[in-house]
Structure formats: C-alpha cells, structure tokens
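Model: You mentioned two targets. I'll fold them one after the other.
Researcher: Yes, keep them separate.
Model: Target one:
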Amino acid sequence: MSPIGRDRYLRAYERALLSALQNIVNGIPHSDLSIQFDVCQEVLLFENYFPAQEPDYQTPVFQQFGRLGAAVPNDVEVGFHLCYGSPGDQPLLNLKDASVLARLMTGIAAFVRRPVEFLHIPVPRTADEAFFSPLHSWRQPPETRLYLGLLQFDDETGNRSRIRVAQQAVQDFGVGAECGFGRTDPLRVCRSFWRATGRPPKCWRDNGGRRHPIISSIAQHPGKCIGQDPLTGLIEDMNDRRTSNGRRDRWDRR
C-alpha cells in the first residue's frame, strides 16, 4: 500500500470495523457474546516482516487497540488473538522467541482501558526454553486469562513437552491450537473430535438446512472414522488418511 494513502485507508478500515462491531453487539445478547480481535498484521509489523515501517509505528497500533477495546461494552467478553498468519496452514514467519508477543500483550494491557478477558498467542512446534523466556517478565493482568497456542496436530509427545517447558515461564495458562481451524484441512476437525471423544461428531447444518459437506458421509467402522473429502469427493479413512485412490493427504506429511 502506498504510504501516502495508508493513513486514510486505516481510518476507513477502522470505521468499517467499528460499524460491524456495533451491529454485532446490538443484535446478539451480551451474555452470549465474546469478541476476539485478530492481530496479525501488527505482529508481522513488530517482527520487521514488511520492507518498510514508520519510525513510531508502535504507539498508533496500541492506540487503535485502545479504541477497539473501548467500543466493546463492559458486559461483553473481549480478547485478542496474536497471529503470525497461516496461509496454507503454515505461519508466514518463524518466531525465534515470544519477545514481540510479550511486548504486544503489555501494550494491550496499557492502552485498553477495560478488562481484557483473554489473550491467545501462537507457539511454534519448535518452541523451547528460549522461546518462552520473554514471558518471565510479562506482567499478567489479574483479569486476563492467557492461552498458549502450543497444541499441534498428531503430536501428543511434543504437546506435553511444550506444556512442561511453558510452565517454567508462566504459571497459569490455558492451551489451544497454534492458530485455529479456519485454514486447516477440514477433516482434521472430525478426526481430532473422534480421537478425543471416541465417537463421530454429529453432522451440523448450515443456514439452508443442508448437511455440512465435510462430514455428510461420515460413518462408523471398527477403529475407523470415514469421511468424504469436500473438495475431491473421495471417501477416506481418517485414521490412516489414505484415500480410495491411494493418495496420502498432504496435511499429514509434516
């Protein structure tokens, strides 16, 4: 984006975002509502991902966080998800440590003048003591719950190891996926649910009343979870992830 037009664009974007937020809080009972702000471009900015940045870029970012937080009524839960992008279910950059994440969380606490109920930060698969070390000095607000996105698909041993290492830096935290399910292989959701609960998920319905295509063909077999790939139409055993034509899904190659 041209530096000449950046400020005008950001102001227009913020107005549109606040308008959409107002529609949400006006239309949904506050007791049923939780607002999460997705902070991606700002993480990349603080990590020097972009080729150029303004000399004093941090203060405007935190001031915007403050304005967004102030627009959420106090009886609505609000949180921030710090993200480093996940196109193709892969991060745009590999964080060497959590120093930028700690700086952003500190800024959120300083500029958002209402309680922030939760913060979620990504944790890479390779996270070690050096990665978590900056969290030692982070001062967690008493009203804020920290969630570490350290859970990786099909990596129970690594998940437990990352939890143990994180406990050396942070005493109280919840856990979650590194980012979310938005850009992952849809059948992972079914497979993970199956393993966690021992039963297949019920087919949910969209607004049109049709069965969701991701699991419309799900069926139970001994030790298997069968689903239909929504893109290819192929029937797959999601415990093996080998399709009826012998193709092994790319998502399990990592």
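Model: Target two:
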Amino acid sequence: MGLGQATGITISQPASGAGGGGTVTSVTAGNAAPLFTTSVATGTTTPAVSFAVSNAPGNSVLGNTGSTAAAPSYSSNPSVLTLTANSVNASTVTAAALIGNATTATTANNLPGGLLGAIPYQSAAGTTTLLNGSTSAATVVLTQLGNGTTSAAPGWNAITGTPGFAVFSQGPTLTGTVTTTAISNSAAITSLRFRATGNAPTIAAGAGAGTTPTIAIVAGSTGQSGQIQLTSGTPTVAGVIGTITFNAAISPAPVAVILMPGNAATALVSTTIFTTTPSTTAWTFSTGATALVAATPYVWYYWVI
C-alpha cells in the first residue's frame, strides 16, 4: 500500500502482507516550489530527508499580486515593492496616490492630505507637518523666529502697503547692510546710522540763488541724503534757491526734507530757509523775505524722509 502527497513524502511497502505490518522499501520527497527543495538520501534503507531553501529573485517579494486567490509567487511589481520598502500597512495608507516612481513623485498629488496652498515643514526630527496656506485677503509673508540656537515653526505674517513697501506686524531685526527703497514702521526704528546708496539727484538754480550762481550736488550724494554747495550770484533776490530732482520717481512720496547748515554763512540764514513738501520726483528750497548775501559760499546737508 502507498501513503503519499503530490509534492510531499511518499513511503512505499510491499503489496502483500497483513494490514498494519510490513517493511518500508522506499522513501521519496517532492519540492515545495518556490520555497524549498527536498532530497532523500538512502531512501530504501535508512532514509534521510533534507530541505534546501530556494533562492529568491533580487528585488522581489513573495505573495499574490492578482485580484483573485492563487498560489503565491515572487513578484517584482513596483507598487508592491514600494509599499513593502516603506513598511506601509492598512492603518497608515490614506491615499491611493501614495505609490509612485521618480517621475510621478515630482507631482503634488503624490502627497496625501493638505489643502490648497499648504506648505510642508519639519515640526520635529522625522516628523513632517503641513502649514495651511493663508486665507487672508491681505498680502502676507512667510516668517520664522528662532532663539539663536533652535528654530521654530514657520507662520504667516501680515504686511501692509504696496508690493515692495512692506510693514511687518512683528518688527524684524536687521543686521549688516540692508538694501531697500523704503521702510515704514509704526514703532521706533533703532539704528546706529542710515546710509543711502544710489544715484545722485540733479539740481537747478532758481532766482533765489542770484544771477549766474554756481550750484551743485556734491559727489557721493543720493536721493535720500547728501550735500548742496552754492556760491550765490550777484545780485540776489528772495525766492527759490534750487530745485532738486530725484534720479528716479519715489513711491510713495517722501513726507519731508531736513536741511542743516554746513558753514557759518549758511547758519546765519538758516532760520529763513524752508523747503517744500517733496513730491515723488522733486523738492525745492527757498529763502524767506530776505535774500541771500551775494557772492557768498553756502553749504547745506539734506535728508529726505
């Protein structure tokens, strides 16, 4: 009689003899592909069954990647490999678009969750969080405030004004050389000094400078600050001394001009000199009722604010 299984161990004995007794004459064993193979040594005397694990193909997993029940096999299906390599299970899979490749991973729809405008950032080591996009109708900027050693989560900071002219609701600390066209702040601005750069404005003498005066903007001056030198003509009359025109229009318009005397003669007449409110393109300064002294050197320092 025989006892066996299609791919298992088979034991054979003589057909004759009483039931329940007999002598084993042969032992054979089949393979369990693709897991292992078997071999039998001395199968007709003292059988020894050995099992050898079969090699698996590189970059593959054992399972059933089909939609119906079937025997398992090794598969190199990239979607299966992606899930396996990242230890993703049913409790962590939140989107069908989680799997992908180097090409599809560059598209936004491969990041599950999040709303329009959301920005991912690291909220802790190994932890990614989404900062929701700003829903404010006003212009905002992305800011961060650390403590000198540790960073912090980013956030949206509201600004006001036209693009390029921003007012921060939380005052930033600016160090080194800061280049800007305009700064506005509702609180005090603390600085060792303000130094403007840029092209110098032009100046044209008015009747108040006298007949045939010599007037100039000193080299190194800018539209924000600088020095004006004048040698008045002869004779002089009361009126506009000079018109200063910016190299380029300034928006919004400055609010005032501060003039400071640069020599003794200028200091004597400083109480009678005044400026107009500057426009986006120019400003003027003039004498009062009293004209300048003819053929006299005058020096003014100006600061446009």
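Researcher: Noted. Anything on target two?
Model: The CA atoms of residues 143 and 155 lie 6 Å apart.
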